[in-house]
Amino acid sequence: MAPKTKEQFAKIREDRKEEILNAALELFAKQGITHTTMQDIARKANISKGLIYNYFSSKEDLLNELIKSFINHLYDFFDPDGDGILTTEEMKYFIEQQVSTFKMNIDYWKFLYMLLIQPSAQEMMDKLQLEVLTSKMWKMIATYFKKHNFEDPESETWLFHTTLDGIVMNYIFNPDKYPIDNVKDLLIKRYCKPL
Amino acid sequence: MAPKTKEQFAKIREDRKEEILNAALELFAKQGITHTTMQDIARKANISKGLIYNYFSSKEDLLNELIKSFINHLYDFFDPDGDGILTTEEMKYFIEQQVSTFKMNIDYWKFLYMLLIQPSAQEMMDKLQLEVLTSKMWKMIATYFKKHNFEDPESETWLFHTTLDGIVMNYIFNPDKYPIDNVKDLLIKRYCKPL
Amino acid sequence: MAPKTKEQFAKIREDRKEEILNAALELFAKQGITHTTMQDIARKANISKGLIYNYFSSKEDLLNELIKSFINHLYDFFDPDGDGILTTEEMKYFIEQQVSTFKMNIDYWKFLYMLLIQPSAQEMMDKLQLEVLTSKMWKMIATYFKKHNFEDPESETWLFHTTLDGIVMNYIFNPDKYPIDNVKDLLIKRYCKPL
Amino acid sequence: MAPKTKEQFAKIREDRKEEILNAALELFAKQGITHTTMQDIARKANISKGLIYNYFSSKEDLLNELIKSFINHLYDFFDPDGDGILTTEEMKYFIEQQVSTFKMNIDYWKFLYMLLIQPSAQEMMDKLQLEVLTSKMWKMIATYFKKHNFEDPESETWLFHTTLDGIVMNYIFNPDKYPIDNVKDLLIKRYCKPL
DNA sequence: CATGAATGAGTATTCATTCAT
DNA sequence: CATGAATGAATACTCATTCAT
Question: Is residue B61 part of a domain?
Fold first, then answer.
């Protein structure tokens, strides 16, 4: 009989928001952003259309929140161990982590590449603030290649990232046929030779 | 003002169609497919909205024709010299051709990746019949890697294509900053060592 | 913490209702009726949305109650002294009262004119039962003009009320710039010449 | 068989736009702006909902165009004869014109007062640029009262306009019962005494 | 009595497509 | 062959109202 406490309401809101974001992510990844209607999202989340607007002020806002949430996940994915110096072993671990991350969060990655390929990608990048994150990784990898005496460590870093991008692209596009683990092993062989 | 011959009419039709396709490609690449309206296309092609339907039965149809046209271009891009055996020199040439193709047809590639990343990519692939094309190249590359004693030539082929995909992605996404030529040189260095 | 008596409960209810009506009036006057949401009203009254429905069955009902309450206030504003005969002095007092009433209840008047100008004004008038009130005043004023030998006392009564309407309109629309007191003085000069 | 000429299209557009504006004005005046849907307007104009957007980019835009059109009409209504000095006869004529204008354009005036009483009236006034128009009239009237030795010509001008406002209000609110002509006659008697 | 999450009918707006001329 | 006015289905979003707690 007693009204719900603030904590109860907060929990409900939290959970509901999460559910909506999950539903949206899945649908965005599967159908594309434009082709996913608020109705679709509501249906998938088993709620009414209107309720979404209790949690997000617009589709745009929902998209932004999803991106924010994605960023947070990215930090989970990538969190480096801190000293910023990769040993050969850590490089191997890094590659494995990356690939494992691709495999475990396919919807997220599909969503990210969807965003990137879209017209307003530049703005998205800003919103994503991916650079902050990337630049850290970038330096780590570049340093690694320098230390390992790669001929053109700068370009090698570009190539390395390019290859990872290619892997994601291929994997999200065709997770069943793409031999991601074999490719990963090749990559490790190439890049993780002991000093 | 002699009446036009049938051939002349056909030519006019063909040209007009081409113009519409070009307008569409450019807009699709710049704004995305969904965000490009028939009105936009008409305006860009300097014709009326209604006239488009004289050449294409629907937006869907226009899209399909564009894809077909793209396929044809792809054949132009990739046309191998026939014997299906790549020498080291030809491999180098192939990579250079590829990259040059990326640079010269950025709209096409943007469009292609847009299609691929989209929901119905599987169907698109079918429409694209990319496999036919790809499989030829695929074999050539695989054979090359075998001949050049790469450890796991099958996976190396995958990795190679993956890397090319990554290059396109990075290039179309940021043509100004991405050091595509440096990356290309690295690739050549890696893959085109003389036997 | 003695349990509350019935009377106390009734009083609380009454007060709460009053608060809601006040919040609604202020918002209606400021933002218009349609553009004021139940949420707005709840927020302004520091209660929850749902609670309003404990006091009013609908927005429509709330509006009607507000109108009723307005009527009561009107009676306060206008309460004539009973004999229905205005002396010159009382006429002056009446005008002054009116204007003072406009100034002190600007929200109420804004709200009233909002209602009147709206589509369903005729119905509103019925709800307002303004006529009852007005007819009393009407007769008093008409009698006054007759006694004071105005040429066409009937039309003069219309004109007089018309002018008061005009004053309210101008005042509520632009309380800062409209020289209501000067206009009032002119009115008094015109209508309150001693017999 | 020939396609329509530009002139034909232009005429169609012109006419259609006018029809939509007329439909909108009538409905806005009758039902209020908020309570009039685009659907309503379309139905009244015997066209489809979508077509309105071929002529007006939004409801807001339609409203603004209506206001613009209203301004133009106002200039028709009020256009003074130029020298800016009113003779007694002209003052009489002016009052008669005003009242006649009220009677002939009841929807326009209802619409105007609707706008004025609404929250965003201040902005509307700006859009209306009524002041430009009003200030001209204002000076003419003020000059007239000065020349005719009214005691406080400034306030008298306010009162005069106030009365006209009151007349419109009463008339649009109840065109059948309000004795506008009697009131007009009284006004003329009061203000148009020969010097 | 009190809360705010939840619903769904209603509204503005977009855009592929049709069609009279 | 060519035009752009016209249509209507689809979609984002609002808000009064209900209801479990």
Answer: no
Using alpha carbons, list the distances in angstroms from residue C56 to C38, C50, C51, C66, C128. 11, 10, 9, 11, 18
C154 touches chain D (CB under 8 A): yes
Residue D52 shares a structural domain with residue D74: no
CATH number of the CATH domain containing B184 = 1.10.357
Lowest mean pLDDT among C105-119, D69-83, D164-178: D69-83
Q: Is B186–A156 a contact, with Cβ atoms under 8 angstroms apart?
A: yes
Q: pLDDT, tens digit, for every residue of B66-91?
A: 988 888 877 776 655 566 788 999 89
Same domain, A102 and A165: yes
The number of domains in chain C is 2
Residue D1: pLDDT band by 50, 70, 90 thresholds? very low
Domain closes at, from B56, B75, B97: B56
Contact B31, B40 (CB under 8 A): yes
- Together in a domain, A27 and A116: no
| SS3 call for C176 | coil
What are the φ/ψ torsions at residue C80 (nearest 5 degrees)?
-80, 165
Residue of C163, C188, C189 to mutate, interface with D, max D Cβ within 10 Å = C163
Structural element, H or E, at residue A134: helix A130-147
Reported as half-sphere exposure (CB side, CA atoms, 13 A), residue A12 has a value of 8
The verdict on B50 and B70 lying in the same domain is no
Residue B70 sits in the same domain as residue B39: no
Chains touching D by CB (3 or more pairs below 8 Å): C
Residues A158 and B179: beta-carbon distance below 8 Å: yes
Q: Are A29 and A107 in contact (CB under 8 A)?
A: yes
Tell me the backbone φ, ψ of residue B146, rounded to 5 degrees: -65, -50
From the DSSP assignment, how many helices (H) and strands (E) are in chain D?
Answer: 10, 0
Write down the pLDDT at residue A6.
84
User: Per-residue pLDDT for A134 more than 80?
Assistant: no
Rounded (5°) CA angle D94-D96-D99: 110
Cross-chain Cβ contact A182/B114 below 8 Å: no
Burial degree of D108 (CB within 10 A; 0-12, 13-18, 19+) = buried
Closest to B117 (Cβ–Cβ): which among A117, A167, A183?
Answer: A117
Question: Which residue blocks in A32-105 are alpha helix, DSSP H?
Answer: 38-44, 49-55, 59-78, 88-104
What distance in Å separates residue D126's CA from the closest CA in chain C?
A: 14
Low-confidence residues in chain B, pLDDT < 70 = 1-4, 77-83, 119-133
Q: Do chains D and A touch (3 or more CB pairs under 8 A)?
A: no
**Beta carbons within 8 Å of C139's beta carbon, 6+ residues apart:** C84
Residues B144 and B103 in one domain: yes
Size of interface A-B (CB pairs under 8 A): 111
**Is residue A64 in a domain?**
no
Q: Which two tokens stand for residue A140?
A: 């780590």
When CB atoms are compared, the residue of D152, D166, D178 closest to C186 is D152
- Which residue range(s) make up the domain with B36? 1-56
- Using a CB-CB distance cutoff of 8 angstroms, which residues of chain C are in contact with residue D185? 152, 155
